[in-house]
Automatic annotation (TrEMBL):
InterPro entries linked: Aldolase_TIM, OMPdecase, OMPdecase_AS, OMPdecase_bac, OMPdeCOase_dom, RibuloseP-bd_barrel
Function: Catalyzes the decarboxylation of orotidine 5'-monophosphate (OMP) to uridine 5'-monophosphate (UMP).
Protein name (database record): Orotidine 5'-phosphate decarboxylase
Any one GO molecular-function label of the UniProt entry: orotidine-5'-phosphate decarboxylase activity
Species of origin: Sphingomonas guangdongensis
Annotated family: Belongs to the OMP decarboxylase family. Type 1 subfamily.
PANTHER family in UniProt: OROTIDINE 5'-PHOSPHATE DECARBOXYLASE
Residues the record marks as active site: D59, K61, D64
A GO term from the CC aspect: cytosol
SUPFAM superfamilies on file: Ribulose-phoshate binding barrel
E.C. designation(s): 4.1.1.23
Positions of substrate binding: 10, 32, 59-68, 115, 175, 184, 204-205
CDD domains for this protein: OMP_decarboxylase_like (cd04725)
C-alpha cells in the first residue's frame, strides 16, 4: 500500500524541490506544492514536478469572491492536480463555485482552521475560542456545499469525521514524537492523526529539513 503521506515541498527552488521529491518518492504517496513554490515557479514549475510521477496536491488556499476563485481554478485546470485547497471561510457560494470550476478528478478541500492557530487566535479574530466547534461548523458547511473534504489538525479530525463519514480529511501540523514544532500550534503524531481518521497526512519540515530526507520519510512510514 502506498503511504498516505504527502510531503510538503515548501521551497522556491525548483531544482531543490525536484531533488527532494526524487529522494523521498518511494516513501511518500504524493507531493504538496504551496504558495512559496508556486509564486516562484508557476504552472510550468508544477508541470515539471509532475514528471516525478507522484500525485500533486496544489495548495494555494484560495479565499476571494466566488467569481475570482472560480476563474483562478479554471486557469489551473490543465494541471489536473489531485487535490486543491480553498479556505472554508470564503463561504458556501465560493465553495460551490470552486468545486464546479475544478477538473472532475480533482479533490477540492477546504481549510477550516489553520494548524498554526489556537483558541486565543480565534478570540483575537472575533470567533468563539473553541477549535473543535469552529472545525465542526466549517466541516458541515464544506460537506453541504458539495466539495470533497476539509483540512484540519489531528486534534479535531475525529470530531470532523463523525459529522462527515465519507469526507476526505487532510491533516497537516504533523510531527513525529519529540519533533520540532516550529510555527505550528495544534500538532499530533502521524500515527495518532491516522488513527483519529485522517485520509492523508501533510508533512513538510520533519522530512525536508532532515539531514537525510529519505531516511526521515522512511522512519515516519514505519510508524504508520
Ligand atoms: O493546507 C495546508 O496544507 C495547511 C493547512 C494548515 O492548517 N496548516 C498547514 O501547515 N498547512 C500546510 O502544511 C504544511 C506543513 O508543513 P510543516 O509544518 O513543515 O510540516 C505547510 O505546507 C502548510 O502550508
Amino acid at each position: 500500500m502506498t503511504t498516505r503521506v504527502y510531503v510538503a515541498l515548501d521551497t522556491p527552488d525548483l531544482a531543490r524541490a525536484k531533488t527532494l521529491a526524487t529522494r523521498v518518492r518511494h516513501h511518500v504517496g504524493g507531493i504538496k506544492l504551496g504558495l512559496e513554490f508556486f509564486m516562484a515557479n508557476g504552472r510550468a514549475g508544477v508541470r515539471e514536478m509532475a514528471e516525478v510521477g507522484l500525485p500533486v496536491f496544489l495548495d494555494l488556499k484560495f479565499h476571494d469572491i466566488p467569481n475570482t476563485v472560480a476563474k483562478a481554478i479554471q486557469a489551473l485546470r490543465p494541471l489536473e492536480p489531485a487535490i486543491l485547497t480553498v479556505h472554508a471561510t470564503g463561504g458556501r457560494a465560493m465553495l460551490e463555485d470552486a468545486k464546479a470550476a475544478a477538473p472532475e478528478g480533482t479533490k477540492v478541500v477546504a481549510v477550516t482552521m489553520l494548524t498554526s492557530l489556537d483558541a486565543q487566535d480565534l478570540s483575537s479574530i472575533g470567533l468563539a475560542p473553541d477549535p473543535h466547534e469552529q472545525v465542526v461548523r466549517l466541516t458541515e458547511l464544506a460537506r453541504s456545499a458539495g466539495i470533497d473534504g476539509i483540512v484540519c489538525s489531528g486534534e479535531e479530525v475525529a470530531a470532523a469525521r463523525r459529522t462527515w463519514r465519507d469526507g476526505f480529511f487532510v491533516v497537516p501540523g504533523v510531527r513525529p514524537a519529540n519533533g520540532h514544532v516550529g510555527d505550528q500550534k495544534r500538532v499530533v503524531t502521524p500515527r495518532a492523526a491516522l488513527d483519529a481518521g485522517a485520509s492523508i497526512l501533510v508533512i513538510g519540515r520533519p522530512i525536508t529539513q532532515a539531514d537525510d530526507p529519505d531516511a526521515a520519510a522512511r522512519a515516519i512510514e514505519a510508524t504508520l
